[in-house]
Amino acid sequence: MEKELKIAVLGGGSWATAIVKMLCENMEEVGWYMRSVYAIEHIKRNDHNPSYLSSVEFDPSKLKLSSNINEIVEYADVCIFAIPSAFLHSELEPLTISFEGKMVVSAIKGIVPETGLIVGEHFSQNYNIDLDDIGVITGPCHAEEVALERLSYLTVACANQEMADRLASYFESDYINCKTSDDIIGTEYAAVLKNIYAIAAGIAHGLGYGDNFQSVLMSNAIREMKRYIKKVHKMKRNINDSAYLGDLLVTGYSVFSRNRLFGNMLGKGYTVRSAQLEMSMVAEGYYATKSAYKINQEHGAKTPILNAVYDILYENKNPKKTFKKLAEKLD
Ligand SMILES: NC(=O)C1=CN([C@@H]2O[C@H](COP(=O)(O)OP(=O)(O)OC[C@H]3O[C@@H](n4cnc5c(N)ncnc54)[C@H](O)[C@@H]3O)[C@@H](O)[C@H]2O)C=CC1
Ligand SMILES: O=C(CO)COP(=O)(O)O
């Protein structure tokens, strides 16, 4: 039998906590890096993360917890990153251990602002990691529903099918189905864009548009996503798969979506700053809008929804007027 891989999760938020829970269903031990020494001590003493998904109970004897990123990267064969993209660069600064011989997996749905790269490419280009050793975990899956053990579907994308199957097997359980894909670039871009479209859905809701309009917005969003991804990474893919359309729908409609919540506040009249201050969690789409807009300056895909969200977030444009103009472009 193959030796069990040592897997570590890096991040202390909701998604990292949900990933550790899923892995603990199948593994003897899971490495877990988080910044907060307080949270680590709390998990050791009280069996749960004090700040995120606190209903999830852990057996601390199965966790190798550390606030030292080098210790955890050294321990792991596979490092799964679930740190919001805006903080990834600074979180990696203390890292001195090489990723050589290890696999790096992104569970992050964002673009690293400092490099303007999706996370897999950021690691590959800045840490000298072969794209074959990069993986992506994505799909329509809110951490809160994992905590509730509601049936959810994930996609593991890797260039190496054997590795994808192996990783998927560590996630599967009574409540998790896991499929695989070789589209490591397209699945990441889809995850980035769907957050932006969920902000748009939230803005529309906040402005008082109804379900009839939302469905048209989502229908246009998936076509926009297809055009954008085709420009940045052309390959054969089915945009209706759960990793693309499914993730767009869950984020655009779920009450758990932070991006939708953020957009909803903007539609209701909050300023960008005040909406951010209201949120206790991170809306990745805020950062992604700027980077995705910039990337598209080179590629020129037709992106009316992305452009409208960019205008509201970064050009201080009025949401009501911007959506009135956007509505005229949708079909
Ligand atoms: N929550 C979810 O359901 C899912 C989240 N994701 C992705 O996972 C990634 C992580 O998101 P969540 O865990 O949901 O975030 P979260 O909002 O639950 O947690 C935020 C995390 O960021 C950390 N943080 C805050 N300020 C920081 C700073 N200045 N420097 C370093 N770290 C800081 C917090 O300590 C916390 O660990 C994101 O890219 C998100 O898109 C992906 C799938 C599902
Ligand atoms: O990626 C997610 C669901 O698949 C989480 O979306 P939010 O960040 O909007 O909550």
UniProtKB/TrEMBL annotation:
Molecular function GO labels: glycerol-3-phosphate dehydrogenase (NAD+) activity; glycerol-3-phosphate dehydrogenase (NADP+) activity; NAD binding
Recorded metabolic or biological pathway in which this protein acts: Membrane lipid metabolism; glycerophospholipid metabolism
Binding site for sn-glycerol 3-phosphate: K109, G139, K194, D247, S257, R258, N259
Glycerol-3-phosphate dehydrogenase NAD-dependent C-terminal domain residues: 183-323
Keywords, sorted A to Z: Cytoplasm, Lipid biosynthesis, Lipid metabolism, NAD, NADP, Nucleotide-binding, Oxidoreductase, Phospholipid biosynthesis, Phospholipid metabolism
Family membership noted in the UniProt record: Belongs to the NAD-dependent glycerol-3-phosphate dehydrogenase family.
Protein name per UniProt: Glycerol-3-phosphate dehydrogenase [NAD(P)+]
